[in-house]
Amino acid sequence: MLTAKKNNYRRTLDSVIRFSCAIGENTTIKGQFTGGENIMVRGIVRGDSDVSGTIVIMGTGCWAGHLAADVVVIAGRVEGDVVAREKVEIVDGGHVLGDISSPIVAMENGSIHEGRIHMREKSQVCEFEEKRLDAIAIST
Q1: β strands within 58-126, DSSP E
Q2: Smallest Cα–Cα separation from 95: which of 82, 110, 68, 113?
Q3: Count: domains in the chain
Q4: CB-based contact 68:49 (threshold 8 Å)
Q5: Is residue 59 part of a domain?
Q6: Which of 10, 19, 39, 98 could share a disulfide with 81, CB 3.0–4.6 Å?
Q7: Residue 105: per-residue pLDDT
Q8: pTM value?
Q9: Which pLDDT band holds residue 2 (cuts at 50, 70, 90)?
Q10: In this structure, is residue 20 part of a structural domain?
């Protein structure tokens, strides 16, 4: 994964250096994704993935299929199961129709999840309020 040195960042995108693959808003992709790169989706993907990296579904993005990666950030729509080896983040406006499996699941107010959540490790539920003025807007 192309990230800064390993730290416990509260937000995943604080640690991502760059995206190696971007799927544009006017693009539809069908097929399977594998590899070790960070992927940003602004368009539509119909297929399955197993990526060693971060997948970000932007506000205009939609993923239909099984989504597996180290880290998954959802601001758009996912129709299918999500498996993250490290963390899943669903931000305001994000919508997941399917089961989520990850050691850490973060859901912002305004996010929607219809399905089950499976957390492989014990984790304490924490509530926090965003206090940074320079918060990254990924909904556009």
Answers
A1: 62-64, 67-74, 77-79, 82-90, 95-97, 100-101, 105-107, 112-114, 117-118
A2: 113
A3: 1
A4: yes
A5: yes
A6: 98
A7: 94
A8: 0.76
A9: very low
A10: yes
Q: What are phi and psi of 12, to 5 degrees?
A: -60, -40
Q: What's the CA gap between 116 and 93, in Å, rounded?
A: 19
Is 54 inside any structural domain? yes
Identify whether 1 is part of a domain: no
First to last CA, the chain: 24
From the number of C-beta atoms within 10 Å of its C-beta (0-12, 13-18, 19+), residue 90 rates as: buried
| Spatial distance between the Cα atoms of 39 and 33, rounded to a whole number of angstroms | 10
Which domain covers residue 77, as residue numbers? 12-118
C-alpha radius of gyration, the chain, whole number = 14
* Tens digits of residue pLDDT in 27-86: 999 999 888 888 899 999 999 999 998 999 999 999 999 999 999 999 999 999 999 999
Q: Which residue has the tokens 């070790």?
A: 36
DSSP 8-state class, residue 97: E
